[in-house]
Amino acid sequence: MFVSTDGETFAEVDLSGEGSVSLHGVAHGSGTFVAVHSETTVMVSADAETWTKVKTGIDAKAEAEATLHAVIFAEGRFVAVGDGGVIIESTDGQAWSRVEAEIEASLRAVTHANGVFVAADAEGKVAVSLDGETWASAKVAEGETLLTVEYVNGNYVAVGTGGSVHTSLDAEVWTRQEIETDATLKGVAYADGEFHFVTEGSGSLSAKARLFLNSTATAQGFADSVWFGLHHAFEGGIEYHAEHGFLFATGENEQSVLIFHYDMDAWLWTGASLYPFVYKHGEDGGWLFYVESSGDTYFDIAADGYITIGG
């Protein structure tokens, strides 16, 4: 284990007194560090210097293979996951309780964002919980092991073997992303308009982030967005939308998208959690509600009436 106060200079912490362990993850919360490793115990520290093993309540004999793979601190508690669908939680790192979830596969990673816990497993599934107590799992990837799940750039992103990358805006509907690799991906981050992946063997690769990331390719170059509908992307941010016509779209991610609507001759602001509500900028601006499958008709909330573009 290595620790640092500035992220640049690291010092090794001697854990030899705790026996041979293979560390898998660490989290911090409420003044306590918790590390999970290749046993059914956890390691706890108040200063990241002195560590002690703490029993978790997992029956090491009955579940000898129940290695803990990941831990986070969220919603006032530590949540650790591992083999055999093991999920345990603790508010202080000392007293742990087992969460009874109907999950059998090895859980390899866990994250939390927007009030949602998300865990990824070795059978290509994700498990989702709103409270850390009740979990539901769903298949995301066939024949793939998901090794990491993170919330980056407005997306839950799960990665794993065979270059597997899956994204979701809400942890319920997932979209497979095609990247040019079949390497095992073990980590993901986002910076400067690109997703950066850690590959097995400490390598790395990057992929440019598309604005309408959660879209599935259809025919003739079109893609079907999980929230924005059928569209065709051109160079330079130009989009042709099946109902809105030609648009210019820009933004850091799908949660906040600025659109110039050419036929309306106006700037609109919307996002995955807003649409079909859009905000029109300008002197006659205000909130509009797009009437889906209407051609290009909006309800102007302030004017209490409908407007049809091009009509």
Task: Describe the protein.
- The chain is mainly β and 311 residues long.
- It folds into 2 domains: 2-208, 7 Propeller (Methylamine Dehydrogenase, Chain H), CATH 2.130.10; 215-308, no CATH class.
- It has no helices and 32 strands.
- It has strands spanning 2-3, 11-12, 23-29, 32-37, 41-45, 52-55, 68-74, 77-82, 87-90, 97-98, 107-113, 116-121, 125-129, 136-139, 146-152, 155-160, 165-168, 174-176, 185-191, 194-199, 203-208, 215-217, 222-225, 229-233, 238-241, 245-253, 256-261, 266-270, 277-280, 286-291, 297-300, 305-308.
- The strands form 7 sheets. Strands 22-23-24-25-26-27-28-29-30-31-32 form an 11-stranded antiparallel β-sheet, with no helix packed on it. Strands 3-4-5-6 form a 4-stranded antiparallel β-sheet, with no helix packed on it.
- The chain is elongated.
- The mean pLDDT is 91.
What characteristics describe this protein?
311 residues; Methylamine Dehydrogenase, Chain H; 2 domains; eleven-stranded antiparallel sheet; 32 strands
Give the arrangement of secondary structure elements.
Elements: E1 2-3, E2 11-12, E3 23-29, E4 32-37, E5 41-45, E6 52-55, E7 68-74, E8 77-82, E9 87-90, E10 97-98, E11 107-113, E12 116-121, E13 125-129, E14 136-139, E15 146-152, E16 155-160, E17 165-168, E18 174-176, E19 185-191, E20 194-199, E21 203-208, E22 215-217, E23 222-225, E24 229-233, E25 238-241, E26 245-253, E27 256-261, E28 266-270, E29 277-280, E30 286-291, E31 297-300, E32 305-308
